[in-house]
Structures
1.
Amino acid sequence: MTDEIREFRDGIFALRTRRFGTVAEIMIEALYNFTKSHNQFHDRYDEVGRQRIEIKFSTVMKANKAVINRHNVIDQCKKANLGNRALNSNDRYDYDFDCNIQQVKRLEFDVLYYGLFFADRIAIFKMRSDEILSCLGYSDKQHKGNKGEGQFHLNRNSIDYHMQHHFVQWLTYEELYHLLN
């Protein structure tokens, strides 16, 4: 990986919430030629298939078992960097990780593109909204009172299910960089 690509990847990992989500949305739009959404309830639109597209991604970080306390707070902060915690895709069975695909409002979209930004490449998955209820570990109870909104987790125990049933493709950071450039 060149310095330019590494800086690009590290920047993606440094983004939080909405800004990170926007990168994932632009990536999926560019990969599959989707257009802007028709309303605020889904992320993109597939003009060819006439489908509402939702996009949810997460960065993959090794789990940290140490609880932060007064005695280790400085050490834990120093160890929390990308170099220590970002997980390579080939190590997905060797380390614990937990990526929460959340705020899934299955009635508001037809197809969910979701995935994992590993340290070395990106895994892209796809699931139809009518498959969500049978997704391994799906819970339609995310927040009290939020009807029709759920979540599921990708982790060391569930990754095989997603790879076998919903995997679409791997994308390297070099490929993403050139796609967006």
2.
Amino acid sequence: MNRKNFLVQKLELLPHPEGGFFKETYRSVLNYENELGKRNLCTGIYFLLEKGNFSAFHKIKSEELWHFYEGASVEIIMLYDDEKLEIKKLGKNLQENEHFQVLVPANVWFGSRIVFNDNEDFALVGCTVSFGFDFEDFELAEREFLLKEFPQHKEMIIALTR
């Protein structure tokens, strides 16, 4: 069994609606109530992306901190309200400006994909969300909407939407 399939099985990862595989690993018992309603303070998941797949553009109403564990590097692509596109690399090669952790601000459209190399066809990362993740706060992007909002980033939007 290859490493990717071993991790999917061992970590009990399931298909994620935005692409890839995931498993929730933590949901705080502490709660907070705000304009969104009652939310857990923090949640955490394992997230695995593989060659030929991507995490489609989406946004959530909380901050999301990504952590690198193993495999290929990951590009996290963010689209801001001021029409700026930012790409951060999550990985272990610090000499190439990769980071062990990358923060995605709340309410920012973002997607991700692995950086292909000859040795790795997947990436295993973790995501910590505060206030905790809730599907009520999750919005999957529609391609036509993003193309109207960010026409200058057409190529990236087409690459990271379904």
3.
Amino acid sequence: MIAALKKKETYQHYFGSLKFALYCITHPLDGFWDLTHERRGSYAAANTILILTLMVRVMKLRYTSFIFLNVYWEELNIFLYLASVLFPLMLFVVGNWALTTLFDGKGRLGQVYMATCYALTPYPLIQLPLMVFSNFVTVDEAEFYSALSAVSLVWAALLIVAAMAQIHEFKMSKNLLFMFVSLIAMLVMVFLLMLFFSMITQGVAYFISLAREIMFRL
């Protein structure tokens, strides 16, 4: 009985935190403050929103009208396609958290991740019906489709800005500065990762050639 009640409370908290995403996107300042400071959000809901975003992004490849999206399936790597969302997101989360921590930012790494995922909510909400809508419009109505698609991206970007301001308790001017610096930090991390993997590749290639030389001489 107790276990059943706890399970019910867990589900209620999950669905409540998932529903709270709708409040965050319409009342970003209050919503993202309550998301972390009042613990209205949850990692389960954040992960759900991220998964929905990835699913919608993949579904767009299959179900969006060819008028708006041409897909060359022979050249498509689905893992790289998903990584084009996950990799920048993780770089932003780590970069923003690392920089703001050095300058009195109040947000923790998990909170930055949670708020960023919640800020992605407009993307699946708009892109999913827009994907269906694309199959019923003509070329002349393409501008309407493009405008709505752009709204989902701009809305999500503005929500991320608002979320970081509320989590770190920064003034908007300071927050915008750190958003810009976070983008620079992402580029630096990409450069360091490329340098690291390049060194690893060269090291492995050296030992392979050395092993081949030894085997040849033996």
